[in-house]
Amino acid sequence: MDTFESYPVRDTYRLIEPGPTVLISTSDGDRDNLMTNAFNMPVRHDGILAVVVGTWDASFATLQKSRQCVIGVPGAELMQTTVEVGNCSGDDLDKWEHFGLTRVPGISVAAPLIGECVANIECKVEDDSLVEDYSLWLLRATAAWIRPGAELTSEFHHRGNGTFSTNGELHDLREHMTKWKYFSN
Ligand SMILES: Cc1cc2nc3c(=O)[nH]c(=O)nc-3n(C[C@H](O)[C@H](O)[C@H](O)COP(=O)(O)O)c2cc1C
User: What region holds the Flavin reductase like domain (predicted)?
Assistant: First the structure.
């Protein structure tokens, strides 16, 4: 693949542990869609991740049917587009065309990777037992990609009220992660 280079699935928690606002790509085979998602988190260090996708999203039905998606991590240059993707429905327009985003084929899911994102995580539904009560989907990362040379600290964060922050200074406390050396390389 030219656009992206492979990223270890076991390290995908690092792509969303900082709490990025992400794009979720889904496909039902006939239609590809995109939504914005800020309620996401890593769950385990072996590629189990969680996202809230609710019945109010057209993406919900697609995720339910396909049981696959791609989590794309946009850099700050995509901030406004990301907000706008979250303010319209794939039932009304083709968001890929409308926002000029590039579909890049993945290797383990039908939903496209988002060419403009810094990182993309291909996922399959691992457990939907919390969906009915909490709209919470547990996903298993099946492949992951980063843009070569990309700045992995360029993600941005929704502060919950329509304001967003980018990252400030990076503080290196790896020497203090004494119990967690494995996670501090
Ligand atoms: C900043 C932002 C964060 C959002 N986070 C979530 C989220 O975590 N979960 C969710 O279900 N919807 C979230 N949304 C709403 C969906 O992105 C929105 O309902 C979107 O229109 C769904 O697109 P779809 O109907 O084409 O699937 C968010 C929207 C914005 C603008």
Answer: 14-163
